[in-house]
From TrEMBL:
<comment type="similarity">
    <text>Belongs to the TrpB family.</text>
</comment>
<comment type="function">
    <text>The beta subunit is responsible for the synthesis of L-tryptophan from indole and L-serine.</text>
</comment>
<keyword id="KW-0057">Aromatic amino acid biosynthesis</keyword>
<dbReference type="InterPro" id="IPR036052">
    <property type="entry name" value="TrpB-like_PALP_sf"/>
</dbReference>
<comment type="pathway">
    <text>Amino-acid biosynthesis; L-tryptophan biosynthesis; L-tryptophan from chorismate: step 5/5.</text>
</comment>
<dbReference type="InterPro" id="IPR006654">
    <property type="entry name" value="Trp_synth_beta"/>
</dbReference>
<dbReference type="InterPro" id="IPR001926">
    <property type="entry name" value="TrpB-like_PALP"/>
</dbReference>
<dbReference type="GO" id="GO:0005737">
    <property type="term" value="C:cytoplasm"/>
</dbReference>
<dbReference type="InterPro" id="IPR006653">
    <property type="entry name" value="Trp_synth_b_CS"/>
</dbReference>
<dbReference type="GO" id="GO:0004834">
    <property type="term" value="F:tryptophan synthase activity"/>
</dbReference>
<keyword id="KW-0663">Pyridoxal phosphate</keyword>
<dbReference type="InterPro" id="IPR023026">
    <property type="entry name" value="Trp_synth_beta/beta-like"/>
</dbReference>
<protein>
    <recommendedName>
        <fullName>Tryptophan synthase beta chain</fullName>
        <ecNumber>4.2.1.20</ecNumber>
    </recommendedName>
</protein>
<comment type="subunit">
    <text>Tetramer of two alpha and two beta chains.</text>
</comment>
<keyword id="KW-0456">Lyase</keyword>
<feature type="domain" description="Tryptophan synthase beta chain-like PALP">
    <location>
        <begin position="55"/>
        <end position="370"/>
    </location>
</feature>
<dbReference type="Pfam" id="PF00291">
    <property type="entry name" value="PALP"/>
</dbReference>
Length: 391
């Protein structure tokens, strides 16, 4: 809804890029429009999700969590059970299939903490595609194990030294590569951000989350949920979790974000990476530095459709603190035997906070965007630090 040819969501979105790149992205937009309606393409997408990713994944009733919160019935959408342990693979598979149709044999991608890079390298191995991952030099040092993982999967990881050696710089270099090599190369973007058509394309592939959950909740509860709650980094798992409910006004759409990167709460409209959205800014109007304990949420912008859903009031966004997230991480682990990613623990923390707003008759869906194995060592250290401080 509300997206036209140029990829606007109200006043947000669009494409503010140099002419050469605009040409490449316009072509991508046309190819995407064509294949997303193509039955053969869609069948291959669904089959790959089934055979390789392990979809459909369950909508698990969390009975002990429900009891402990004494509010609505809580259902968990289990993206943590996907191959590679998170929702990112849904989008990666979709875009690689599109790349193949477009005749590309080389995939490039950016990665910050490495999660999108690992998902991309995984699917490239599976489809036999040449894979190059751009990663800020600083990030390659902090995430050495993810660099090794990507290399193990057959990808070439190129450390970017330019600028601050962070994610933003990796994006710039990847875009330059795309402009130079667009005939053979496909740029696989990892979240619902960037210039048109990326936000619409990533939403399309991640919408499988709510396509499944809507069918599952009706089967299990005989009605729609009172709310859907998901964490918002760039916004891909959240927009995928919301998509099939946007036109259902009785369903509250709720996004969780970290206090330390509260783009929705404190951001102002601006242009970032070639599109308009809410952006956290410093006093000079430059993108503000963010820091989140969850590496996947460390971004000063957000997908343009979330900015629009906030502006129109269709979706609500709230922040949770680091302490609340650490508590939720332990709560879901102890109550349900599911260790969530620190990113996903933001959604759990928000569900706990908002539970009193719902009745025992209500059902709410909580997207568990990923599993927490990657975060266990970090949480161990954080809790130990805290204990020592408390003496
Ligand atoms: C990357 C990541 C996120 C944040 O990205 P979105 O595009 O906002 O979904 C959230 N959870 C997990 C597990 C991730 O890996």
């Amino acid at each position: 809804m509300n997206t036209n040819q140029e990829g606007y969501f109200g006043t947000f979105g669009g494409s503010f890029v140099p002419p050469k790149l605009k040409e490449v992205l316009d072509n991508l937009a046309n190819e995407f429009e064509r294949y997303k309606e193509d039955p053969e393409f869609n069948q291959e997408f669904k089959e790959t999700l089934k055979e390789y990713v392990g979809r459909e994944n369950p909508l698990t009733y969390a009975s002990r969590l429900t009891k402990s919160l004494n509010g609505p019935k809580i259902y968990l959408k289990r993206e943590d059970l996907n191959h590679t342990g998170a929702h990112k693979i849904n989008n990666v598979v979709g875009q690689i299939l599109l790349a193949k149709r477009m005749g590309a044999h080389r995939i490039i991608a950016e990665t910050g903490a490495g999660q999108h890079g690992v998902a991309t390298a995984t699917a490239c191995a599976m489809f036999g595609m040449d894979c190059t991952i751009y990663m800020g030099k600083l990030d390659t040092e902090r995430q050495a194990l993810n660099v090794f993982r990507m290399e193990l999967l057959g990808a070439k990881v190129i450390p970017v030294e330019k600028g601050q050696g962070r994610l933003k710089d990796a994006v710039d270099v990847a875009l330059a590569d795309l402009v130079e090599n667009y005939e053979s190369t496909f740029y696989l973007l990892g979240s619902a951000v960037g210039p048109h058509p990326f936000p619409s394309m990533v939403k399309h592939f991640q919408s499988i989350i709510s396509e499944e959950s809507k069918k599952q909740i009706v089967e299990q509860e005989g009605k729609l949920p009172a709310a859907v709650i998901a964490v918002v980094g760039g916004g891909s798992n959240a927009i995928g979790s919301f998509a099939h409910y946007i036109e259902e006004p009785a369903v509250r759409l709720i996004g969780a974000e970290p206090e330390e990167a509260a783009t929705m709460a404190k951001g102002k409209p601006a242009e970032l990476h070639g599109f308009k959205t809410l952006v956290l800014q410093d006093e000079n109007g430059a993108p503000a530095p963010t820091y989140s304990i969850a590496a996947g949420l460390d971004y000063p912008g957000v997908g343009p459709e979330h900015s629009y859903l906030k502006e129109t009031g269709r979706a609500e966004y709230y922040t949770v603190s680091k302490e609340e997230v650490l508590e939720a991480f332990q709560l879901l682990s102890a109550k349900e035997g599911i260790i969530p990613a620190l990113e996903s623990a933001h959604a759990v923390a928000l569900a706990k906070k908002l539970a009193p707003q719902f009745s025992n008759e209500d059902a709410i869906i909580l997207t568990i965007s990923g599993r927490g194995d990657k975060d266990v060592a970090q949480v161990h250290d954080l809790l130990k630090d805290r204990k020592e401080k408390q003496g």
